[in-house]
Design goal:
about 280 residues; alpha/beta; Rossmann fold; 10 helices; 8 strands; about 15% strand; globular
C-alpha cells in the first residue's frame, strides 16, 4: 500500500501543482525532445528537492504512456555522512522511488584540491553517473537543473566569463559514446519546487559535501556567498524594477542575431564579422 506521504505528494503534482510543475516538465520534454521511445533513462538523484521532484515527475509522465521508456533511479554516494545517506534512502522510500545506490570516492578525491574543488567534484560526479548508467543499459542521464539555474548561468557567463552561453536542455556526451544528458526541469521555477516541498512537509538534503559538515541543516546564508548566490540575489533585485527580467534573460539566448554579433564560436572555430564584411 502506498503510504500517506507518497499519496499526498503524487496527488499534489496531479492537482494543486499540475500547472506549475507537471505542465512545464512535460513541455520541456516535448519541445526539446528529451524522451524518445525505447529510452532507458537514469534519473540521477542527489537527495535534494530538485532531483527528488524530478523523479516523481518522471513517474507521473510515464503513466501517461505517450512514450515507451524505462527508468532507473540512480543515487551515487560520493562519500556522504551516514545521516545524509540515510535521509536520501528514507525520503526515496517515503515517496515510492525505487532507487539504485552505488558508491564512489569523489569526496575523498577532492578533499585536498585547493583550486575549484566544486568544479572538479561536479565533473567527476557526471563521469561516474555516465559510467554507471551505461553499465545499467541506459542511454541517457537526467539531471535536476531548473529554470533558475539556466538564467543564473546565462547571467554569470556574461558577468564573470565575458561570454554568452547557456545551460543546454540536452547534450551529447563527449566521453561516453551514445549517451546523452537531459534536463527535464528546464522550464520549472525553483520557487514552485520549494512550494511543492513545503506543502508536503518534505525535508531534503541542501548540501552534502565535506566542506559543509552540517549538511542536513545547511543554510546558504550561513556561508560565504558564492557567485551563483550573488547572481541569484542580483536577479531578484533587478526584478523589483522589471518583472520580466527573468524571462528576458532566458529568451536572450533564443533570439541571438548573428548580424549584430562581433564574433562567435561554432564547433570550436572562431568566426568574426569582418570575415564576411
Amino acid at each position: 500500500m502506498e503510504n500517506e506521504r507518497q499519496k499526498k505528494a503524487e496527488e499534489s503534482i496531479r492537482k494543486k501543482f499540475h500547472k506549475q510543475l507537471f505542465t512545464p516538465f512535460a513541455k520541456a520534454c516535448k519541445n526539446y525532445e528529451l524522451i524518445n521511445d525505447g529510452d532507458r533513462i537514469a534519473v540521477c538523484i542527489s537527495g535534494g528537492k530538485d532531483s527528488m521532484l524530478m523523479a516523481k515527475l518522471f513517474q507521473e509522465i510515464q503513466k501517461h504512456k505517450k512514450k515507451s521508456f524505462d527508468l532507473v533511479f540512480l543515487v551515487m554516494d560520493p562519500g556522504y555522512h551516514e545521516d545524509n545517506r540515510d535521509l536520501i534512502i528514507s525520503n526515496a522510500k517515503a515517496l515510492g522511488i525505487p532507487i539504485t545506490v552505488f558508491e564512489s570516492i569523489i569526496f575523498d578525491a577532492v578533499d585536498n584540491i585547493d583550486k575549484n574543488p566544486c568544479y572538479i567534484c561536479a565533473r567527476m560526479r557526471r563521469g561516474y553517473l555516465y559510467s554507471k548508467a551505461k553499465e545499467l543499459g541506459c542511454n541517457k542521464i537526467a539531471l535536476g537543473h531548473h529554470y533558475d539555474d539556466v538564467i543564473e548561468t546565462i547571467f554569470m557567463g556574461m558577468m564573470y566569463g565575458a561570454q554568452i552561453q547557456t545551460m543546454m536542455p540536452k547534450l551529447h556526451s563527449t566521453n561516453f559514446e551514445g549517451m546523452e544528458l537531459i534536463r527535464p526541469l528546464y522550464l520549472v521555477r525553483e520557487s514552485d519546487i520549494c512550494a511543492w516541498r513545503d506543502y508536503n512537509d518534505l525535508h531534503f538534503l541542501q548540501c552534502a559535501c565535506h566542506f559543509t559538515d552540517t549538511c542536513s541543516t545547511y543554510n546558504e546564508d550561513d556561508i560565504t556567498p558564492s557567485k551563483r548566490l550573488e547572481t541569484k540575489k542580483l536577479i531578484a533585485k533587478l526584478k523589483e524594477d522589471n518583472p520580466y527580467i527573468e524571462s528576458n534573460i532566458f529568451n536572450s539566448v533564443t533570439n541571438v542575431n548573428l548580424d549584430t554579433v562581433i564574433a562567435y564560436k561554432k564547433d570550436g572555430v572562431r568566426h568574426h564579422f569582418l570575415d564576411e564584411y
